[in-house]
Amino acid sequence: MPAPASLAARLAPSDQLHLVRWWDELAPAAQERLRGQIEAIDFEQLGALHQGQVDQPDWHAAARRAQPPVAMRLADRLTGGGGGLGVKPPEAIAAGKAALDAGRVGVLLVAGGQGSRLGFEKPKGMYPIGPVSDATLLQIHLEKAVALAKRHGKGVPVYLMTSPITHEEQIAFLEANDRFGLAEDDLFVFCQGTMPAVDEATGRVLMSDRGELFLSPDGHGGTIAALAAYKKAGVGAIDHMRRRGVEHLFYLQVDNPLVPIGDAEFLGYHLAADSELTSMAVAKSAPEDKLGNFVMVDNELCVIEYSDFPDDVAAQADAEGGLRFWAGSIAVHVFGVAFLERMLALKDALPFHVAHKKAPYLDESGQLVTPTENNALKFERFIFDLLPKAKRPIVVEYAESEVFAPLKNASGAPKDTPEYVRQFLLDQQRSWLQAAGVAVPADVPVEISPLWGLDAAGVAERAAQAPVAIEGPTYLRG
Q: What class of enzyme is it (predicted)?
């Protein structure tokens, strides 16, 4: 039986009829799945993206007129000064604690990726990264939310974004582990949307099977739409936030277990500056560091990706001989919920970024072809592109050793490997114990669950309550 006339009429104007070429071979359930995928596509928008008719910023030109961002530098935080923001650390800490005590803070955790680059064919959040315990990335993050709730006497709801390829597996994993101690109403799992990949030469949507389009997650910028669009029992994440009184979201990505979730000082700068979007930065150690650059362009704060930043601009020095463009983005932010709701009302709040990629596809005979060169265009949105639209966006610098060790690469790469991340965790937690007066023998691995000590202050408090003896590999938990 041929495809329904309504589908054919939808596909014909954009030369996409190949998507129903094998319709009559599909079982009814597969037909309905394919119909749903096709009806979800804005073919007019897709065509404009392929033809370059959607405005794409000239980032190279923007970089050449950029200025360094106004920021709270690490040196000012450590010396207690107000820095570029005019807010002193004790003031920020007090404001952040008050918001946490009042239950006005939630966590937005992006966890849609697979661990394929790590040789781990599961969602990346399920990767066992604990140096002693093999605790997964998800466990570490969620235990931080549990510890925050215990400290402040209010639940800290976590809004966990998955992707279509990781959603069901992560749901099952979380339920099997009792959400790692989070109350049921403190975890809201939602799924991001997708965008089809298109043939670079023709703009035709690629197929991965006879009843399946080649769909990719629409980037972490898709978080904004998914917060409202994805519903559980008719309720979206934004609805849940309104009910819980959540006004600010601490945003992070699942691959970085060092993120100090709910850090009161960071939250406090956001609140004291009445900012709609606050970003955490680390100082770049070299011009070629693969971090997005926080810069001011035409008096607006934005991020320019390292791949779009000209080498000669990245290498510019400041008056002290350091990097002029020092502020590297680590994908940690605080968003005002009201700001995100305002962005939801704008159809094109975030621009698309176009990437040239290799994508397997079905040829006209229905055979799967694995290309050796780039053949496809993929379209993504990035959440940092909200910066220019936010009122009073600010940047706060933290030490890399405190906040940034992302798990991205398989063993053998220069950095961001499992071994690299575990060493950062060990070094950080050893320093917390030593600062608390606990003797840790050299070369003895010690790991601290957030449930035992959330941060340096939490470890000091716990160590003061009872002696801690470290003799061999140790996992402090509970």
A: transferase
Within a domain: 89: yes
71: pLDDT strictly greater than 60: yes
207 sits in the region (left: phi over 0; alpha: psi -120 to 50; else beta) called beta
Q: Are strands 198-199 and 376-380 parallel, antiparallel or unpaired?
A: antiparallel
Decide if 51 is inside a domain.
Answer: no
Domain at 107, CATH number: 3.90.550.10
Instruction: Give the position of tokens 């596809």.
Output: 361
In terms of residue numbers, what domain contains 467?
Answer: 410-478
20 within 8 A of 11, measured Cβ to Cβ:
yes
Whether 92 contacts 268, CB under 8 Å:
yes
Q: Based on the domain organization, do 400 and 455 belong to the same domain? A: no
Per-residue pLDDT tens over the stretch 429-455: 999 999 999 999 999 999 999 999 999
Token pair recorded at residue 119: 């040789």
Q: What is the rounded distance in angstroms from the CA atom of residue 372 to the CA atom of residue 241?
A: 46
User: In terms of DSSP bridges, do strands 446-448 and 474-476 run parallel, antiparallel, or are they unpaired?
Assistant: parallel
**pLDDT tens by residue, 113-134:** 889 889 999 999 999 999 999 9
For the chain, the residue count is 478
- Domain match, 279 and 265 both: yes
